[in-house]
Amino acid sequence: MSASAVIVAAGLGTRLARELPEGPKKALVQVAGAPLVAWSTFGLAQVEGVTEVVVVLHPDELAELEASGLGRALRAAGATSFVKGGARRQDSVRSGVEAASGEWVLVHDAARPLVYPEVVARALGRARQSGAALLAAPSHDTIKRVDADH
Questions:
Q1: What is the pLDDT of residue 18?
Q2: I want to staple 37 with a disulfide (CB 3.0 to 4.6 A). Which of 9, 51, 74, 76 is the partner?
Q3: pLDDT in the model for residue 23
Q4: 3-130 has which fold?
Q5: 20 or 111: which carries more pLDDT confidence?
Q6: What residues contact 45, with CB distance under 8 A and at least 6 apart?
Q7: Are 3 and 50 in contact (CB under 8 A)?
Q8: Average pLDDT score over residue span 89-106
């Protein structure tokens, strides 16, 4: 049974934009020499049973995919196709799912680059047994920085 991985990377990264106002969108920020989205792409492409990796990008990035070198980087990481994201996250997920051809579909947020293929493979196995599965991790406390105005 084939599975498609859909990586949602179409967001604007508005919180990150406050820190990097002239920087790229969150999914395109360079981390250890590769765009953030490439790390998720690589991890999901390694999952046993995943035969396709669909990357959902912001329309601006999709238009510049080849000129920017992003397409080459993502194909090297394992991406098989690219689709345009929508106005809302759910619209982007829908675009990715509609483009997927696998019997099973995994949806992943590009902002979470630490993909452990063996953990995802176990979740996929559970989905095949029960009809669906959700992979989650415990939430941890967040440290926030404030200034005198807030």
A1: 53
A2: 9
A3: 59
A4: Spore Coat Polysaccharide Biosynthesis Protein SpsA; Chain A (3.90.550)
A5: 111
A6: 5, 53, 77, 78, 79
A7: yes
A8: 97
52: burial class by Cβ within 10 Å (0-12, 13-18, 19+)? Answer: buried
Query: Average pLDDT, whole number, for the chain?
Result: 89
Alpha carbon separation from 83 to 37, 71, 111 (Å, rounded): 14, 12, 17
d(CA 1, CA 51): 9
| pLDDT classification of 39: cutoffs 50, 70, 90 | very high
In angstroms, the Cα distances linking 21 to 9, 13, 24, 87 are 18, 10, 8, 21
What average pLDDT score do residues 61-82 get? Answer: 91
Say what percent of the chain tops pLDDT 90.
61
